[in-house]
Amino acid sequence: MSNRAGLLVVCLVILTALAELALSQTAKTIRLPSGIEVYDLSGEWDALIESYDQTVSFGTNLHVVKIILTGSFCPITGQITSPVMLIGVMLQGDLLLRESFQNGRVLFRGELEENEFAKLEMITDDGKAFLGKGQISENGNKIEIDAPNHGRMTLTRK
C-alpha cells in the first residue's frame, strides 16, 4: 500500500509540474474593448540585429530592447483601443557600437492587427525608416523582423 501511495505522490508532482510548464508557455495577451485579443509584447527583450546588403558594414549586434505598446485609450476602461502601436527602444547596446548608437533610440515601430503586424519599420541610427515584415511566435515570446536590403532582427522575451 505504501508503494502505491508513493507512486501516487510522484504522479501528482509530475502532473503539477507539467501543468505549470504548459501555463508558462501560453502567450500574454491584452483584450481590447472590441473583444479582440492581441499579444502583449510590452517589456524587455534581447534583440539580435544582423545587418546585410546596404548596411552590411554595421555587422551583427546584440541589444536589450524595451517594447512599449501605445494607442488610443478608452476613457471609461483605460484600456488600449485599436489600432495598437508598438515602439522598440534600445535600453542597452553592444559595447562595440559606434558612438551615434545611443540608449533610448527607437529601433523599430509598428502596428499590431490582432496577432500580426499590419505595419512594421526598422529605424536606422540616422532616423531612416525601412519597411519590414514581422512574425510573432505562437507563444508570443519571439519576434522576427526582416527589412529587405537592410537587416534582420530577432527578439526573444527576457
Summarize the structure.
This protein has 158 residues and is mainly β. It has one helix at 2-24, and strands at 29-31, 37-39, 43-51, 60-70, 84-92, 106-113, 116-123, 129-131, 133-136, 142-147, 151-157. It is globular.
Q: Can you offer a commentary on this structure?
A:
It is a single chain. With 158 residues, the protein is mainly beta. The chain has one domain: Beta Barrel (Lipocalin). It is 15% helix and 45% strand. It contains one helix and eleven strands, in the order αβββββββββββ. The protein has one helix spanning 2-24, and strands spanning 29-31, 37-39, 43-51, 60-70, 84-92, 106-113, 116-123, 129-131, 133-136, 142-147, 151-157. The chain has a nine-stranded antiparallel sheet with strand order 8-7-6-5-4-3-11-10-9, with no helix packed on it. A hairpin with a 5-residue loop joins strand 9 (133-136) and strand 10 (142-147). The longest helix has 23 residues, at 2-24. The radius of gyration is 20 Å and the shape is globular. The protein starts with a helix and ends with a strand. 21% of the residues are buried. The mean pLDDT is 78.
